[in-house]
Structures are given as C-alpha cells and as structure tokens.
Design a protein that fits this description.
Layout lengths: L61 H34 L1 H5 L1 E3 L2 E2 H50 L1
Antiparallel strand pairs: 1-2
Helix pairs in contact: 1-3
Length: about 160
C-alpha cells in the first residue's frame, strides 16, 4: 500500500483544494492596510512614477565574469611564455647535454646562447602582459568602474 499525499477526503489539509494546503502556493502579503499595533510605524508610501529597471547585482554581472576570464587568460599567457621557455632550457640542460654543448658559431655553445635568450623572452612576456592588459583587460575594467560609479550616484540620488 502506498501513501497518497492528497487523499480524496476534501477536508483533509493535504487535499489539493483545501484552503490551508501547505503544498499549495499562497500569497505572503496578508498584512492589513492599517497598523495593527500602536507602535508600528506607518507603511511607506507606494512608488510614484515609473519603476526603475531592476539591475543585477554587481557580483553576478556578466562583465565581471568577462573581466575575470580576460585577466586569467592574460596571466596564463605571460606566465607560460616566461616559465615555459625556462623549463625548456632546464629540460634541454638535463636531458640533452650533447646538444647544449654543441657550438653555434666560433666557440659559442648552444646552452649559453639559449641562456642569453632567456632575458629577451622574459621581456617579451612582460610586453605581452602589458599589451593584453591595455587591449583587453583595462577597457573592461574601466567600463565596470564607470558603471559602478553611475550606480552609486543613482543610489545616492534615490536616497535623497
């Protein structure tokens, strides 16, 4: 025998048409239009004029998600450029000593040449980081900053 949450008896509280069915959605605004207690403050006046558009909270804003992903991509690219080259240099030093000891020109070993190239690769990673910051991350951050300042001014004007 299975349990029937809505019995056929109409006066049972779980019956779908019973006025006090706890599973049935009931409006929560059942407060009377007058004060029920003498110390209760008067109800605030209703809104006048057009309602402002509801804006999503800044923490759930899609621009912040875009900014986080752009910044994440920027960090990963710059980090992998510098550390990737250095890791490649270390792996070649450990597992290919013959290659690193071979000469490129007039007694300049390949390992020394690759070690000297590490500095320009680091500068390249820094330049790449600054370029992606100026091109992708900073415009998004500036737009979010302007919007939040406008929202703060609107809220301040609305409180007056």
């Amino acid at each position: 025998m299975s349990y029937d949450p809505s019995p056929s008896y109409p006066h049972h509280p779980y019956h779908p048409h019973h006025p006090y069915n706890p599973y049935q959605h009931q409006p929560h605004d059942s407060s009377p239009p007058y004060s029920t207690y003498p110390w209760q403050p008067p109800a605030p006046p209703g809104p006048t004029g057009p309602r402002p558009r509801p804006r999503p909270a800044l923490g759930h804003h899609s621009d912040l998600r875009i900014l986080r992903s752009a910044y994440r991509w920027q960090r990963r690219t710059a980090t992998l450029t510098a550390l990737g080259y250095f890791t490649l240099f270390l792996i070649l030093s450990a597992f290919a000593p013959g290659f690193m000891a071979s000469t490129v020109t007039d007694g300049l070993p390949t390992g020394l040449l690759l070690a000297m190239v590490q500095l320009p690769v680091t500068w390249l990673a820094i330049a790449l980081y600054e370029h992606t910051a100026r091109r992708y991350v900073d415009p998004i951050a500036d737009r979010i900053r302007r919007e939040s300042e406008l929202n703060a001014k609107r809220e301040e004007a609305g409180k007056r």
